[in-house]
Design a protein that fits this description.
Blueprint (H helix, E strand, L loop, with lengths): L1 H17 E3 L1 H20 L2 H25 L2 E6 L4 E2 L4 E9 L6 E12 L5 H12 L9 E12 L4 E8 L5 E4 L3 E5 L6 E4 L8 E5 L22 E12 L11 H7 L3 E6 L6 E6 L6 H20 L4 E5 L4 E4 L2 H12 L22 E6 L3
Parallel strand pairs: 3-11, 14-15, 14-17
Antiparallel strand pairs: 1-10, 2-4, 4-7, 5-6, 5-9, 8-11, 9-10, 12-13, 15-16
Helix pairs in contact: 2-3, 6-7
Length: 365
């Protein structure tokens, strides 16, 4: 019995929220009620006829709008990545799967606009709906118009661009998409069920422009060439007492008749290790700022061709380079939670004597 009552309540709630009279619709309803009352009181056949005409108009409007809403299907094409607080372009394909009937005057809406604070009565209603296992589909967000389609033929498909800005990192649900219509007479707004329902995406931390520090300005392809103990040739000069014999350039020495030494360039490798220090549990704002800095730095280095590894509280990602490494690091930062556990152990340095430039990011500072 409880199950039957719950199903009937759910059906009534969905139907009552699917149809809303417009201003003209309210006038039509009031006029029909007024003419019906006048016909009952006076026995005037003309009043009965006008009341029946208005009621028939309302019924026909509901049937035609219901036919217009049915048979719609949505397919979304997601962008390569979502970043917190930054708009991303989602492509939405609206298709009419009906065989013979067209859909008219469609308004495609996204439920991604925050609603103002709800009144005490609204909160009480939401509480009782929750007790019944129901949810107000309009309680979370207000609709925003994406596109208007005057006519969608049977089997036709339209492409719509949708700019979405996810507020925070982590696994998030895309806002729902629905179709609404005032067809045919504009008396009622008929809203269909959500066309896009609970689509989950992974949102990466926000990216910002990285400014080179003074200690880093000498690295990279545009770096100033300095003498050092690298592998590339910097200059040739005359031999001095105390120079290492293996640096003698024998071919030039034989040609000139004097010992000539090779000067090598300083190793300017940009390979880096990003170390996450602290947990960020005390201050969520500092936590998000630190993760955003780490993500921005990792993306900047990887897109310049460097190899990057991530160690510390956000987990361990081994040294690598390329787009796949960028996705691995951004995923680790996006899914980091302060209460997930102790900081990950620092991995061993790569073999071959490679030196990594270390960047420390404190989530608590």
């Amino acid at each position: 019995m409880v199950r039957i009552v719950r199903r009937v309540t759910l059906w009534w709630w969905r139907r009552s929220r699917a149809i809303q009279p417009t201003r003209d619709g309210w006038w039509c309803v009031f006029a029909a009620v007024g003419l019906g009352v006048a016909g009952v009181n006076t026995g005037n056949n003309l009043a009965y006829l006008l009341c029946a005409t208005l009621l028939a108009l309302i019924i026909v409007s509901g049937l035609l709008s219901d036919v217009t809403i049915r048979g719609l299907q949505v397919t979304v094409t997601l962008p390569p990545a979502f970043h917190a607080g930054q708009p991303a372009l989602v492509l939405v394909a609206i298709a009419n799967r009906k065989r013979r009937l067209c859909s008219y005057s469609l308004v495609i809406e996204a439920m991604d606009r925050p609603r103002p604070d709800r009144s005490a009565g609204r909160r009480k209603l939401e509480y009782w709906l929750g007790e019944l296992g129901l949810r107000d589909r309009r309680a979370g967000a207000a609709p925003r118009r994406l596109a208007y389609l005057a006519r969608l033929s049977p089997g036709a498909e339209r492409l719509i661009s949708w700019e979405v800005a996810m507020p925070a990192r982590g696994r998030r649900r895309l806002p729902r998409i629905r179709a609404a219509t005032r067809f045919p007479f504009g008396l009622f707004v008929k809203t269909g069920p959500p066309l896009l329902y609970d689509e989950t995406v992974l949102v990466y931390p926000a990216l910002h422009r990285v400014r080179a520090r003074p200690a880093e300005e000498g690295s990279g392809e545009a770096a100033v060439r300095r003498r050092g103990r690298g592998h590339e040739l910097h200059n040739l000069r005359a031999y001095r007492p105390g120079d290492e014999p293996h640096l003698i350039h024998w071919r030039t020495s034989a040609r000139s008749g004097t010992l000539t030494i090779r000067e090598l360039e300083e190793d300017t490798s940009e390979d880096a290790r990003i170390v996450i220090v602290g947990s960020g549990a005390r201050d969520p704002v500092r936590l998000e700022r630190g993760l955003s800095r780490a993500a921005s730095l990792a993306v900047d280095l990887l897109r310049r061709g460097a190899a990057v590894e991530l160690v510390g509280a956000a987990g361990g990602v081994a040294l690598d380079r390329g787009p796949a490494q960028e996705r691995r690091i951004l995923t680790a930062l996006a899914l980091y939670a302060p209460a997930a556990g102790p900081a990950a152990a620092r991995p061993a340095a790569p073999g071959g004597g490679a030196r990594l430039r270390e960047h420390r990011i404190d989530l608590d500072a």
